[in-house]
Amino acid sequence: MSRRLDTVFLEGVELFGYIGVLEHEKRNGQTFYIDVELGVDLRNAGRSDILAQTVSYAEVFSLAEQLMDEARCDLIESYAEQLSEEIFSYFDLVRTTCITVRKPEAPIDGKFRAAGITIRRERDE
């Protein structure tokens, strides 16, 4: 019987970075908002109250921040994919990732709250 996974999440992580296709995006940078949802079985953490039995969202935040600091890619898709791979690499408990990257300053003429992407990945994909 398959069981739905529990969720560890970070919502609205505000990071400044230099991701973009256009030269001014690479030169001046802009603010991005990141949401991360991780599919994890949290039963052992709930029963033991031991941090090592779950995923530290503080460590996930640090990974997202470090990757944004280093990112010099054109596409937010690349950033999201790299973040997903890093999370799987660092946290054995994570079975799935869902990462949203919002770009409120996307170069679009017109009013909008944000442009962005969401990727969903499973371990061993």
From TrEMBL:
- Show the GO cellular component annotation of the record: cytoplasm
What processes in GO biological process is this protein linked to? folic acid biosynthetic process; tetrahydrofolate biosynthetic process
Task: Give the source's domain of life in one word.
Answer: Bacteria
Q: What Enzyme Commission number(s) does the record list for this chain? A: 4.1.2.25
Keywords of the record, alphabetical order, are: Folate biosynthesis, Lyase
Q: Quick check: keyword Glycosyltransferase in the entry?
A: no
Output the Gene Ontology terms for molecular function.
dihydroneopterin aldolase activity
Catalysed reactions, semicolon-separated: 7,8-dihydroneopterin = 6-hydroxymethyl-7,8-dihydropterin + glycolaldehyde
Q: Which residues form a coiled coil?
A: none
Note the InterPro entries from the entry: Dihydroneopterin_aldolase, FolB_dom, GTP-CH-I_C/QueF
The first-level EC class reads lyase
Query: Which pathway does this chain act in?
Result: Cofactor biosynthesis; tetrahydrofolate biosynthesis; 2-amino-4-hydroxy-6-hydroxymethyl-7,8-dihydropteridine diphosphate from 7,8-dihydroneopterin triphosphate: step 3/4
Query: Which residue numbers delimit the Dihydroneopterin aldolase/epimerase domain?
Result: 8-121
Q: Which family does it belong to?
A: Belongs to the DHNA family.
Write out the function statement from the record: Catalyzes the conversion of 7,8-dihydroneopterin to 6-hydroxymethyl-7,8-dihydropterin.
Q: What is this protein called?
A: 7,8-dihydroneopterin aldolase
Give the organism, scientific name. Answer: Pelagicoccus albus
The gene designation is folB
